[in-house]
Every structure is written in C-alpha cells, then in structure tokens.
Predict the structure.
Amino acid sequence: MIDLVELYVRYSRRHEPVVKGVTARLSGKHLLLGPNGAGKTTLFKAICGLVPISSGRVLIDGHDVKSLYGRPKLLAVNLSEVYRVFHLSAYDHLRLFADIMCGDLGLALNIAEDLGLSLELLRRRKPWELSAGQQKAFSTSLALASGAKHVLLDEPFEQLDPARKVRVVRHVEEYRGVLVLSTHETWVLNALSKWSVHFMIEGRVYGPLKAEELAHASLVRGEAEGAILRFKAAGGVYSLVPGACGEPLSKLVTLDRIYEVTLGG
C-alpha cells in the first residue's frame, strides 16, 4: 500500500508546485489518469525518491520512503532513467537488474519479446539506442519481472501500436501485487474496468473512483448536480457526470483533449 500525505513537489522555489497537496491511498490495481503535463511522472518520481519532496510524506506499507533504501522486491518502476546507469547492452541490463532486484530474467525476456523486443535486438543495442516505444517496452518488462510488491508503470502504452498495448494490458492484469499505472489514454477505462482510478490534473489528484464509472461518464462545464467528480482546470470548474449529457470521457481518446473541451473545441 502506498500512502501520499499532503504531498507537494516543486522544482524551484520561484515556480508553483508540480504536485499540489496530494493525499491518496494507492492499493490493489490502480489507474492514475490525467493529461500530459498533469504531474503524473513527477508524482511517480517522488514516490521512488528520485525528486526531493517539498513537503508532505510518502509511505510504503506504513514506512516513510526516505527510510526505505536498499529494499529489494519492495518497489519497481518503469522510468527509463532508472535503468541507464551502465554502459551495457539492453540484455545485460536485464540480467543485472533481475539479479539486483531478485527478479525473474526469463519472465523479463518473455515480456520483452511479447512487446516486440527480440533477444538479438537486446544483445545488440544499449537501452538508450532503442526507439522511444522500445525503451518503454524494455523498462516495463523490467518492472513487471521484478517481483516487487509495488510496481509503478508510467505511461506504459506510450509509443506502442494497438497490438502491443493489448499485450501490456494482459501482463498488468496478470501481475500479482500493488500496481499503479499512469496514462492519458481513455480507452483503458473499458479495458481495465475493474480497477480503481484517481484523476490527476494540474498537479492535483481527485478520487478514487471506479474505471467503469468513468468509462460511462461525460465532461461538462461548471458544478453539475449529481456529478461523480468535480475538478479545476484552465481556471474553471468542470464536472464528470453519469451518462452522455456532455462530452463522453471515453471518446476523448486522450485526456489532453480536456483543454480543447474547456475552450469549447
């Protein structure tokens, strides 16, 4: 279980926080849904201890993340910068990190192959020599094969074709443990309809809700009566309401389109 308590993250004192007072409990299978630039990646980095926390706390199984260094099988993430520390081939990275994290090399290779990364390709290229989609598939394979109790997957569908996206869905459904997946793509609401969801926009987190609720919700301006969620965006207040009385959320394709809707596009 991951608990976030009044969490603020800012990169400079001169700028407003990227993560703004987030309090949430993440357990089981969980989606962090929001447009690009909402702060999802920064939030994941804060959970992993990769960026300094301005104020607030991150607790993993009740322990402050600042005290949890060197704990294999506790937390894994698919952020590519975590795995770019050695001048080794992608295959040797898989071997090394499977050993460090007490993970399953065979499973990592199987997932990588399923996502389009052949053994020959992994032996021939460094991780940073892979394409953007290949790098995402590579780091996702490492995280899912780690055997960690908690796994964070940041935009695992990014730069993947539809067939490989479906394969990622299968692998995350099979994972046993706490798994938090961030994405801006709304089709996952139907594909992962039994998951819990937190909605993140402009640094703030709202929820939790059920994915199946959001899959059948619509976006409207203002504080609508009977809304399942209200949030602030682009200087205004917006509501997600049951039914199709507004812009159906699942038909936006990407939550980046929220800003088009708020502008009347």
